[in-house]
Amino acid sequence: MEKKISAAQLREDVDFTYNKLKRFHPNLYWYITKEELDYKFDSLKASLKPSTPNEFYFHLAPIVASINEGHLRLRAIPRQYSKEELAVLKTKKPLFSLMEYKVVDDKLFVIENKENLGNIKKGTEILKINDENVSELVRKYRKLFSSDGKNQTFQKYFMNLTFFNFYTLEKGYLDSAKLVTRFDNKLADVLIRRHKKSEKEIVTDKVQTKVTADQKVQDYDANSKSYNRSFKFLKADSSIAYIKVKSFSATLASRFYKETFEKISHAKSDYLILDVRDNLGGSLTEINNLYSYLTDKEFTLVKPPEMTSKTSGMHQNYFRDKRFFSTVYRALGYPFFLAGNYFLSSKKEDKYYFREFASKPTKPKSNAFKGKIYVLVNGASFSASSVIAAKLKYEKRATIIGEETGGANDGTVAGVNNTVTLPHSKLILPIGLFLIRPNIEFDNQSRGVIPNVEIDPEFGSIAETEDKPMKWVMDDIDFRNSITRQSK
Q1: What Pfam families does the annotation carry (predicted)?
Q2: CB neighbours of 423 closer than 8 A, spacing ≥ 6?
Q3: Which one of 222, 294, 301, 404 is most buried, by most CB atoms within 10 A?
C-alpha cells in the first residue's frame, strides 16, 4: 500500500477502468456526455504522477463519481491487519463509534455521547481531527460518491453514514485522536483514546445472542439490537397500520409480509403507512412481493433489465468472496449458472434484456390492502426504495410524503455486479450489469421520486425535532375521518 506505482502503470489502470465501464455499464452516458467523460479521463491521465494505490484512489474516484450513478463507486484498499493485530483490536473499544455524529453541510456535530467520551457535550462541533480541518475532509470525501443524476438530497445522508468510514480507510484504526471542538462558542482541545474492554465485555462479545423465531422474521440484528422490519397499529382500534422497512434484505421477507397483511386484513384497517425513510434499497424480489399486497390488479413492477450484451449476466460475481469449500461446491453449479444466464437473455431491437422475476406480470394477493396508503420517503430512500415509491406514485396507489428520494425516479443501474480489480493499483470497481427501471412512464428529469407532499425533514437541525412528515399523515387521517363522520 505504501509503494509508489509509476505514472505509466496508473494510466493503464485509468484506461482499464474506462474500457470496463464501456464494456459492461448499460447506460454509461445517462447523466454525462461521452465528450465530457472522455475529457475527464484524458485530463486525469495527463496529470498523473507516481502514487500509492490510495493516493491514486482520491484522483480516480471523483471521475467515476462524475458519472452520477449512485451505485457506481470506486473502492480503495483498506489496510490489512495481522491476526495478532486484529486480536488486540478486539480487546479494545472503538475510538470514534462510541459517539454518534451528524454531518451538516461541511460541519461535524456530536449528537450523542452515551459514555461521556472526553466530556464532549451533545451539540458540540468537531472542528479538527489530528490537526486536519473537518470541513476540508468533508469536501474531500464528498467527491468520492454521487447520487443518481441531478438529485441533491442523497449526498448529505450518505456522508453522514460514511464520514468515519472514509476517515478510517485513509488513516487506519487509531488508538487516539486529538480533537479541536466548539461548544457555546468556546474552543477546546480534547484527546480521546481507545480504551480496553473489561473482561465482562470481552466475554459478552463472544456470546452469541439467541434470536427467537419472531425476531428472525423481523430480521433482527443482535449487534445493534434493532429490527430491520417492524409492524404495529398506531391506534387502539387498529385503523392505522404502520410498517417500517430499513432495508429490503429479503431475509424471511415473504413470511413477514404474509403474517403482517393477515393481521391488517383481520383488523380491517383503513390506513396503511409504509415508512422507507433511510432505506438504501435491496432485493427486487422483496419489493415485488410487497407490492402484491398493495394493489388490487395484476402488475409488472419493473421493465425487463437492459444489458450491454447477451453475455453480460455471465460476468456477475459468482465466485467472488466465497470460502474454499463454498467455491468448490459452487464450481459444480457453474455450467448451469452460465447456461441459465445465457438463455435468460434476449435481444430485441439491437438491445439486450434479462428476464428478471420482477419484470414478469404478478397477481395481487387475495388479502391485499385496499385502503388509503401513505409512503414516507427522504433523501436516503435509495435504489429499490425509489423503485417501489415511483411505481406506487405513478399508479396513484399511494400518497408519497417527505423529501425527494436519493434514488432516481426513472430507474438505476444495479441488480448484480461485475466487480473488477484494477491491474496495478488493485483498486476495486463494482459495475452494475442491469439497467433496472420501474414499469412507468418516465419523467426524464434526472431526479429522484418527487413526493406528492414535500415536507422539509429539517436534516440540518442538531436538536431532536418533531417528525413533520408523520405528523402531516396523522393530521390528514384525522381530517379524512372528520369528513367521514360529518357525511353520516
Answers
A1: Peptidase_S41
A2: 9, 12, 13, 16
A3: 301
**Which one-letter amino acid corresponds to residue 128?**
K
Task: Identify the domain containing residue 115 by its residue range.
Answer: 92-145+154-196
With cut-offs at 50, 70 and 90, classify the pLDDT of residue 191: very high
**pLDDT tens figures, 225-284:** 788 999 999 999 999 999 999 999 988 899 999 999 999 999 999 999 999 999 999 999
Q: Does 330 lie in the same domain as 239?
A: no
For the chain, first and last CA: distance in Å? 74
Query: How many residues belong to the chain?
Result: 488
Q: Is the pLDDT of residue 320 over 70?
A: no
Claim to verify: residue 283 and residue 410 sit in the same structural domain:
yes
* 33 located within any domain: no
The answer on 254 and 109 residing in a single domain is no
Whether this prediction's pTM lies above 0.70 is answered by yes
The domain spanning residue 117 has which CATH number? 2.30.42.10
30-44, 106-120, 129-143, 272-286: least confidently modelled range: 106-120
Give the pLDDT band (50/70/90) at residue 336: low
For the chain, the domain total comes to 3
Q: Would you say 187 and 180 are in contact if contact means Cβ atoms under 8 Å apart?
A: yes
Residue 412: which of 379, 376, 446, 375 has the closest Cα?
A: 446
